[in-house]
Structures
1.
Amino acid sequence: TLLDVFHEFAALPDKFLTFDDGFRSLTLTYRDVAQGAYAFASELKLAGIAKGDKIILCGESRPGWVIAFWGALLEGVVLVPLEPSSSDAVIQRIQQAT
């Protein structure tokens, strides 16, 4: 499963992703992403979001998006990704559907 893969790579110090926004570059290791994912999973739990709940992630493709994806997966939370350019009407319809 994806969680099996996550647990296999969670402790690796190897480079996982590099993000460059044109001003600065950020490189994260597998371990960095895993630590962030565990932290995000804890925040979901603190917020009362539990296994099977759905959350919308509306944001640009950045390292935080990857971390949120894995954190939601760790908690069994369904992640519904949306483009940041989505209109308010589209976001509201998706909120109602999910």
2.
Amino acid sequence: YILLCGYPPFFSTHGGAISAGMKTRIKAGEYQFPKAEWKNVSQEAKDIIKMMLTVDPGARVTIDWILKCPWFTGTVPE
């Protein structure tokens, strides 16, 4: 997430390192893909991030799956 837009998916609205609201959003898996930063990011990349940030560890993708994912193993367009 950070590598694609420049900031983390969960952040404190008060500028601190962590806040109660931030903890709540992390536990609930509440994050967004704001258009300004994400308009040029492929839907495939967003889908992979969603799978990586799934709250339920049993439903979350594994590192083995991620490393074999075509988005990571494919070529980058010019």
3.
Amino acid sequence: MQHNKVLILDFGSQYTQLIARRVRELNIYCEIHPFNKIPKEVDSFNAVILSGSPVSVRSENALHPDLSQIRGKKPMLAVCYGAQYLAHFSGGNVAPSATREYGRARLSYVKQNEPFFSNIREGSQVWMSHSDTIQALPDNATLLASTHDVTNAAYKIEGEQTYAIQFHPEVYHTTDGRHLLENFLINIAGLNPDWTPDSFVDETVADLKTKLGNDKVVLGLSGGVDSTVAGILLNKAIGKNLYCVFVNNGLLRKNEFENVLKQYEGMGLNV
């Protein structure tokens, strides 16, 4: 089964991993790639999210990826630096803010009948974290939302499925952030939220059966989560052809070797 995929381009934001987590919480598969290492198979992704960044779009070191295979061709959501990037390099204007805009704010204007802000109303709390501000929107842009201090808090590009927001929907303090991501990914981009833990297990086990056939596998166990999960999945796929090895290396905590072995007995692994 082929799942939808979201590409997150990382511009160095401290929140990028949080974006990925929020997308996955919507049961949608995503991958994070550096902004300057766009995957060659970009066509296999169904939507793209641009992260924030500590860098200014006005600096000589501005991060400037080639989005020609993405913009206007795929649904795209530009967050914070991404929103400023689109404005700065597409006919708009980004300038230093009089004060660093950091912390909670509330939407003072939301465009009516706009699918991106479906069921999100004026007064909704958002989280700002930027030192530049978008003074003029890029070409063909329509204003979607404002706060008291940030006029251009959200916009879209007409004729494209391109949306941009100055605030961070991925953080807890943006109260409707999950809803906004859901509006973009499911209602606008049309992605199917079917990437669940159950489907991941079923597909991984089926894939292992196909790849391994009747081969035997030796797996080193550490007692940690990663190797244990790998062991459980392999056990479901090939059963007695899996040989797990757990080494008492002398550096484990008191009684840890015996306790971990007992846990593995209860899991049915051949250790």
